[in-house]
Specification:
Elements (H helix, E strand, L loop, with lengths): L1 E4 L5 E4 L3 E5 L17 E9 L4 E4 L6 E15 L5 E3 L4 E5 L7 E17 L9 E5 L11 E5 L18 E2 L5 E7 L4 E5 L4 E9 L1 E4 L2 E4 L3 E5 L3 E6 L3 E9 L2
Parallel strand pairs: 11-12
Antiparallel strand pairs: 1-18, 2-3, 3-4, 4-9, 5-9, 6-7, 6-8, 6-9, 8-10, 11-13, 13-20, 14-19, 15-18, 15-20, 16-17, 16-19
């Protein structure tokens, strides 16, 4: 089953420096029809003004992934070393047994970002963070795994990551990215017990017979192959999570 979520139907949360468009219930946004998608608990499209900050905490037992769409972002979590990200950089904080303070601060040009919260499958452990400056794209415009809780997605485990290997999630989930040239497509295969949620970052795509523009999304349940056709140069992010 494919369900479409249009950008103009998203929830909206705003402060002096932050604007969030929320796909699921978050902060003051409440809608019984949109609580989560399987074990994807949060998907927010955020915009911070220059040097603006976004703070949360305490948070526990959740993997929070932040992908920078444009601009720059500095992340500070408790006593961890600050992490600075540019466009297409990715940051994970796996909150484990609990983090008291989480803060994201934009650079001088402001920033836009997408943030995903996954519910982990393992018992709460020690909090940890991980980041990537960016990822190389596949030559065919197909999906590239940015983060995964499946060991088989990164068979070479080393102390120092030098090859753009996926960020390691505590959740049995994946976050994938595709930059698809106009007129081409990308396909992703999974099992029927998984829930897929695809959001269009930029461009225009067709999923089955539905045309989606930037900010639109589709939820796919019981679907083993999701095919995305780009009607113009397009960038998408896709999550693959357990259905329950």
């Amino acid at each position: 089953m494919i369900t479409v979520r249009r950008a103009d139907s998203l929830g909206f949360v705003q402060s002096a420096s932050l604007a969030l468009r929320c796909h699921f219930a978050f902060a003051t946004y409440r809608d019984p029809a949109y609580q989560h998608e399987g074990r994807l608990r949060v998907l927010n499209l955020g915009a911070l003004c220059p040097f603006g900050t976004y703070s949360l905490g305490p948070e526990a037992e959740v993997d929070i992934l932040t992908w920078v769409q444009a601009g720059s972002l500095t992340v500070q979590v408790d006593d961890f070393a600050p992490e600075s990200l540019q466009a297409e950089g990715l940051h994970l904080i796996s909150a484990g047994s609990g983090c008291q303070m989480l803060r994201w601060q934009a650079g001088a040009e402001g920033t836009s970002f997408l943030q995903f919260w996954f519910l982990p499958d393992t018992e709460a452990g020690t909090p940890r963070q991980e980041s990537r400056a960016g990822f190389s794209q596949t030559e065919d415009g197909g999906f590239r795994i940015l983060a995964s809780g499946f060991p088989e997605d990164d068979p070479e485990e080393t102390e120092t990551v030098t090859d753009g290997a996926p960020v390691a999630l505590s959740a049995g989930a994946r976050l994938l990215h595709a930059a698809i040239p106009a007129g081409e497509g990308a396909a992703y295969r999974t099992s029927p017990a998984r829930d897929l949620y695809l959001v269009v970052v930029s461009g225009v795509v067709r999923v089955q017979e539905t045309v989606l523009k930037a900010g639109d999304a589709v939820a796919a349940q019981g679907v083993t192959t999701l095919t995305v056709m780009a009607l113009e140069q397009t960038e998408v992010l896709l999550t693959d999570v357990a259905a329950v």
